[in-house]
Amino acid sequence: MATVRAMREADVPAVSAVRVTGWKAAYAGMVPQSYLDGMTVEADTEQRRGHFDQSQEGTAQLVAVDAHERVVGWACLGPSRGGETTTTGEVYALYVQPSLIGSGIGRALLEAVHADALAHGYESLLLWVLQDNTRARRFYERAGYVADGAVQDDDYDGVSVSEVRYRRTL
To answer: Tell me, what DSSP letter sits at residue 24?
Structure first.
């Protein structure tokens, strides 16, 4: 089983590896392959370092690590980006090393996100999931999240991809 702790700057390359491999595994067939092929761990690491250095109040980055302290999952949360109340947070990302999906790491990360959100004063959380990502949607629904009817489209290499918003009271 994995342990969840606060992300450290030294974790950035491993987090990027989990994120990029997670995108390529989870979103194949949902996001244009050209977009996925263009993702690199190196570019993501550079971007992630910038985000790590600019963390704002009310945000948290958590990692799940195995018994050898290797990063096997990552989650990020902070204030809602949708103009919600100050007591509404948002799960910006949650990724698990693809070969370990189904092992409980995602659940452990999400439980830690919930605890951290409460510690930051959030009373509810939002998150966005690709409409066609049924595996992720089932995962969040089992954790008590409910689709609230909001939908947004993001552009990936000229292709519009729909996301649905989920909400959960803590």
So the answer is: H
Provide the residue ranges of all domains of the chain, joining segments of one domain with +: 3-123
DSSP 8-state symbol, 119? H
Instruction: Give the number of other Cβ atoms within 10 Å of residue 100's Cβ.
Output: 16
CATH number corresponding to 3-123: 3.40.630.30
Q: What is the pLDDT of residue 149?
A: 96
Amino acid at 4: V
Helix %, strand %, coil % for the chain, to 5? 40, 35, 30
Query: What mean pLDDT is reported for the chain?
Result: 94
Cα–Cα distances in angstroms (integers) from residue 106 to residues 55, 88, 145, in the given order = 22, 21, 14
Asked if 105 and 2 touch (Cβ cutoff 8 Å), the reply is: yes
Residue type, 119: A
E-strand ranges in the chain read 3-6, 60-65, 71-79, 88-96, 124-130, 146-156, 159-169
